[in-house]
């Protein structure tokens, strides 16, 4: 059977593939439901059988060349660790999660770090606090070093600006930064996926407040087109992690991006919104 | 930081000024159509009042937004002696929902203007920009198509250059030197220190128009 990938690449599939591999890559057991751009490494990443790679032939791409990197941005899902009731997150869980990634042949690359800051209004009359945004978050993302994002979650506003906006806010003195958190850890390459596992810590402390994981799928920018393959990956990931019998599990909450004025085409603004949602979840977990 | 001087010129002499600037610059002018919204903090927000400007560039196919904060001018005996204003300025490009963002933070629209004109950019000891614009006010909220001049028959000329604490003296000197080219047509000074129109402007303009330009 031969299928055509999104960028025109074709992959010939033979019957008798490992069941797990097919489900992860193709969304069904034996063939694509949605065409995807697949590398040999992706096909082989869950399979320990070296012979498998010889059973797949990757044909050269045909038709239109893929869109330029400037036009597309890989989409990502941001997962967060949800501890079981009565338990808290700890560094042992972080270590186990990292080992999970490596156990499925995730190749460790460099470090990554994003920063989230809570802003609060400076008010002359504190009794009027309800008239101002309760949660104003500022986010600096690893993937966009020259940009800064503000999210007003209650009003469903995400603002993208140059990083100099921070200096402007500092000069205005109407909102002040209170608490900042780092999301930091290591990055892994896993075929067409890029994974970032990170701890959530205050900037001046090592107290672990949470664990997050970015799952980035490099070939596709469409949220809708990628949903099946992302769900399949997360299912396999959850299965892998569950074998470690850790006191919790990863969760993914998909924001209603349309409420923020964002489209199906993924951007860093989508990432910023996901971080704001995850932050709210982490706060709720601590309170509970 | 930026260094800035301003002046005014009668609209009838703008064409002559454009000829002069074109001759000095050598590259075509950049058209300007900027909707400027000046926002001020509400009465309860901040220990002191604050002001921020949002600039929407309407000349682009897709309007682009810039947030601009103008800080205090340099003070002291040294600052008094120089004829150019040196002040802090910070700008940031922003997504198109920036007005809604600042409204939600608690800022209010104080006034809005539409600046229409052109700009020339020079490299003469500093990165100098000369803008010539008519300043227009809107009779209805955000109605840029129905804007009318604030001062009919008069346009604003601004000469600006970015600077830092290390090089502002050189930038000031570069601007002062550059302004001499424009002296026959207009007098440039610190903002809020207006010298009015120049008496020689009419004659200088006539000369420029009859010569068809200066090289």
Summarize this, please?
Chain A has 288 residues and is of the alpha+beta class.
Spell out the key features of this protein.
heterodimer; A: 288 residues; alpha+beta; Hypothetical Protein Pfu-838710-001; 2 domains; globular; B: 215 residues; eight-stranded antiparallel barrel; activator (chain B); transcription regulation (chain B); transcription coregulator activity (chain B); nucleus (chain B)
Describe this protein's structure:
The complex is a heterodimer of chains A (288) and B (215). Chain A has helices spanning 19-26, 40-44, 51-54, 91-103, 165-172, 223-242, 268-287, and strands spanning 2-4, 10-12, 57-59, 75-83, 107-121, 136-140, 147-152, 157-162, 175-190, 193-202, 210-217, 248-252. With 288 residues, chain A is α+β, with helices and mostly antiparallel strands. Chain A folds into 2 domains: 2-59, no CATH class; 75-287, Hypothetical Protein Pfu-838710-001 (Beta Barrel). Chain A has a 9-stranded antiparallel β-sheet with strand order 8-7-6-5-9-10-11-4-12, sandwiched between helices. A 3-stranded antiparallel β-sheet of chain A has the order 1-2-3, with no helix packed on it. In chain A, a hairpin with a 2-residue loop joins β9 and β10. Chain A is globular. Chain B has a single domain (2-212), classed as Hypothetical Protein Pfu-838710-001, CATH 2.40.320. The model of chain B has no long low-confidence stretch (mean pLDDT 90). In chain B, a hairpin with a 6-residue loop joins β3 and β4. By secondary structure, chain B is an alpha+beta fold. Chain B has helices at residues 14-25, 77-81, 98-105, 168-182, 201-211; strands spanning 2-10, 30-41, 51-57, 64-73, 85-94, 107-123, 127-138, 147-149, 154-162. Chain B has an 8-stranded antiparallel barrel with strand order 1-5-4-3-2-6-7-9. Chain B is globular, with a radius of gyration of 18 Å. Chain A: InterPro entries: Mediator_Med20. Chain A: It is found in: Nucleus.
């Amino acid at each position: 059977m031969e299928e055509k990938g999104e960028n025109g690449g074709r992959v010939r599939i033979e019957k008798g593939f490992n069941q797990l591999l097919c489900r992860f890559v193709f969304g069904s057991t034996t063939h694509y439901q949605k065409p995807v751009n697949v590398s040999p490494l992706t096909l082989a990443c869950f399979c320990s059988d070296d012979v498998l790679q010889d059973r797949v032939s990757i044909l050269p791409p045909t038709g239109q060349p893929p869109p330029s990197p400037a036009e597309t941005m890989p989409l990502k899902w941001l997962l967060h660790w949800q501890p079981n009731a009565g338990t808290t997150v700890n560094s042992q869980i972080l270590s186990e999660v990292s080992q999970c990634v490596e156990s499925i042949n995730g190749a460790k690359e460099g470090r990554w770090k994003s920063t989230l800051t809570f802003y609060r209004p400076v008010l002359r009359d504190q009794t009027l606090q309800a008239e101002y945004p309760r949660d104003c978050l500022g986010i600096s993302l690893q993937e966009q070093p020259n940009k800064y994002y503000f999210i007003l979650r209650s009003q469903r506003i995400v603002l993208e600006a140059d990083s100099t906006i921070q200096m402007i806010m500092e000069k205005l003195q109407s909102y002040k930064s209170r608490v900042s958190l780092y999301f930091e850890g290591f990055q892994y390459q896993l075929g067409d996926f890029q994974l970032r596992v990170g701890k959530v810590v205050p900037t001046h402390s090592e107290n672990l407040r949470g664990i997050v994981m970015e799952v980035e799928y490099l070939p596709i920018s469409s949220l809708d087109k990628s949903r099946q393959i992302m769900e399949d990956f997360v299912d396999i990931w959850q299965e892998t992690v569950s074998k470690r019998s850790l006191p919790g599990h990863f969760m993914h909450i998909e924001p209603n991006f349309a409420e923020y004025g964002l489209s199906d085409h993924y951007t860093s603004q989508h990432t910023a919104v996901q971080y704001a949602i995850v932050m709210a979840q982490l706060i709720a977990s601590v309170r509970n | 930081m930026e260094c800035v001087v301003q002046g005014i010129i009668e609209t009838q002499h703008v064409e002559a000024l454009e000829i002069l600037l074109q001759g000095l610059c050598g590259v075509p002018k950049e058209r300007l159509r900027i909707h400027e919204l000046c926002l001020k903090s509400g009465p309860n927000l901040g220990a002191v009042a604050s002001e921020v400007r949002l600039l929407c560039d309407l000349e682009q196919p897709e309007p682009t937004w810039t947030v601009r904060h103008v800080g205090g001018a340099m003070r002291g005996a040294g600052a008094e002696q120089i004829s150019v204003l040196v002040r802090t300025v910070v700008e940031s490009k922003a997504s198109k929902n920036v007005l809604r963002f600042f409204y939600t933070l608690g800022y209010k629209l104080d006034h809005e203007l539409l600046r229409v004109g052109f700009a020339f950019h020079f490299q003469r000891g500093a990165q100098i920009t000369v803008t010539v614009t008519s300043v227009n006010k809107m009779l209805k909220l955000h109605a840029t198509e129905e804007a009318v001049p604030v001062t009919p028959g008069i346009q604003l000329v601004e000469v600006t250059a970015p600077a830092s604490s290390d090089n502002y003296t050189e930038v000031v000197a570069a601007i002062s030197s550059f302004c001499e080219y424009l002296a026959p047509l207009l007098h440039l000074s610190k903002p809020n220190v207006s010298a009015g129109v120049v008496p020689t402007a009419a004659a200088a303009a006539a000369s420029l128009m009859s010569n068809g330009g200066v090289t």
